[in-house]
Amino acid sequence: MGKFFLVPGAEGWNLISRPAENGNWRVRAFPSLDAAAETLSTDDDVVLALPISAVLAQRMRLPSVEGSELREMVRIQLEKALPFSTEEVTSDFEVIEQANGECVISAVAVQNQRLTEIAAPLLNRRVIPRAVTVYAAQRVATHAGKGCALFIYPEFGALVSAISENGKLSFARTIDGGVAAPLELELPQLTMTAELQGITASFQNVLVDEKCFGLRDRVERALAAPAEMMAVETPPASTGLNLLPQAWREARLRQVRREQWKKRLVIGGIAYGAIVALALIQLGYLKFRVRQLDRQIERDAPRTVFVRAAANNWKALAPAIDPHFYPIEILLHLFDSLPSQDVRITAYNQSARQISVEGEANKAALAYQFADKVKKHPDLQSFTFDMQSPRILPNDHAQFRLEGRPR
Predict the structure, then answer these.
(1) Is the pTM for the entire model greater than 0.70?
(2) Contact 313, 319 (CB under 8 A)
(3) Could you tell me the domains of the chain?
(4) What are the pLDDT digits (tens) for 225-263?
């Protein structure tokens, strides 16, 4: 998005812009606003400056009040000066100075229909300016921030004279006859009119546009003051005057929001596409790894079969080669687990898959104690033991059977 200032020129419009590539401001002249609008896009930041001939500029002296009350007083004064109702115009103002309970106001108004006609080439291309101001106010704010100054410059073949106070536009008019006008008569009349409105005619600066270089000597003779040359502002200074109609503000806000949503959708689409692409890459990588593993499993299958067969053989031979499965070792640990001499082992059987211990105890509780100690014996943890309820004999002794399986 570029930043642009559209300002009136001597014979057409000047487009002041700053390209992103070098950051230097440049001025391009166009014969019409149509030609300038063709170089702009809807998302450009455009400030439109109006010529003096399109606006009503008025200097007011009002009681010093604040906020909305001052704005209402300015509206009432403009309504008295305008040939149409305030609903048909857009206006704004700046405070030039405040002193002794009074404030001096620089007020500017433009008819909405006239503004729409001027900006039609922009609006037809959906280029809505961010702000609408007055070129005279921009020139004043750029070249004469303090004191009183007189400006003379061309606009659309006419000659404009403008007076500034403290960097604000206080008086402006078009000189009849353009560059051929008798300045020796026009400028003294201009200063007299300004004095009648309370503006001092002692100009601290007199500035003449460089395109009016030939008028410099005549201006100096008419005012008996030296004149300085000024060029097109790059860029123009900002002003407090904004004549952007409310309908344009709302339309621009909707347009900005629409552009923001477009950008968000584009960014979201890019992000979604990137996620999908990454997912596809991941899926392709996983398929590639699965094929690699399948080929590796197929290649290693003979060795895997051998390892499994060896493991099964060692497991089958475990009772013969593992000391934990030696019958004598198991019997020793079983006798170590007898809680007392009242528990006796009467039979012992062992195979590759299980062992069984039969016995008799003077009491059923002793049989349970024996089974519990066998289960907790550290050298018998290779087996899982289980004992059913003992059988009680007529002499109250208990017969039990304890079975163990390799884990």
Answers:
(1) no
(2) no
(3) 3-244 (3.30.420.40), 324-406 (3.30.1360.100)
(4) 889 999 999 889 999 899 999 889 998 888 888 888 888
